[in-house]
Amino acid sequence: MLWHYHCPDCGQPLEVEWARHKEETVCRKCRSRHYPPTPDEDPFAYIAGARWPPELEQIVIAHKGAVCSAPGCFRTYNTLTLKKPISKGGRISVDNLIPVCTHHARDKGEQDYEEWIQNLRERELNEQLAAVTLPMVQAETPPAESAETVPLAGYVQLISRESNTRLMPLPENRPVVMAPFLRGAVRRLVFDYEWEARGGGEVKVYLVAWPRGEEPRLDFLESEEFAGLKAVKEHWAERDARGEGCVTLELPPAPMGRWTAAVVMEGNGAFAIKEFVLAGCD
Ligand SMILES: [Zn+2]
Ligand SMILES: [Zn+2]
Question: Which residues sit with Cβ closer than 5 angstroms to ligand 2, an ion?
Answer without folding.
Answer: 68, 70, 73, 75, 101, 104
